[in-house]
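Q: Here's a chain of 191 amino acids. Please give me its 3D structure as tokens.
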Amino acid sequence: MSAEPASPDPAPADLAGIAARITRPVVLVGLMGVGKSTVGRKLASLLRRDFVDADEAIVEAAQLSIPEIFEQFGEHYFRDGERRVIARLIEEGHGVIATGGGAFVDPSTRALILERTIAVWIDADIDTLVERTARRNTRPLLSNGNPREILTRLAAERAPFYAQAPIRVVSENGPHAETARAIIEAIDQWL
């Protein structure tokens, strides 16, 4: 029994044609650890667009780390600032925007993203998320408790919101370029 051949990478001409049809920012949503930032950088490179990480833009605007914002002001304050920063990034017309895991849960932020961008839900299984999030200790929502239990709960709570994105791609334990190519193919089909 032979395996199916892997689908070839989109040729540069195909990529250019798909990229030309993308007239709005591509916004990546999903739980922490799905690879929004790393996949987003690769996606932007393939599409020859710029990339911006909303969390990095928030840190720059606040001059505080995200854990410091949560600790000093709380999650509600953080979400309010996050919504304003994402609105600004969309208005500035960036090519690919990675959002924080909770951004798309906020009704105002979600409505803005759905109306003005191409929203892509990057999903991953809990084992993958636990492994990836263990690499960094900068995630405030995982600081008090068992990360597997917290991620499982967040996945269940947030899935109905993420499912409102018109495009869903599963990120598996493989090169991020594969997920980026899957996103391009999904956007091409959606358009």
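Q: Can you summarize the key feature?
A: The radius of gyration is 17 Å.
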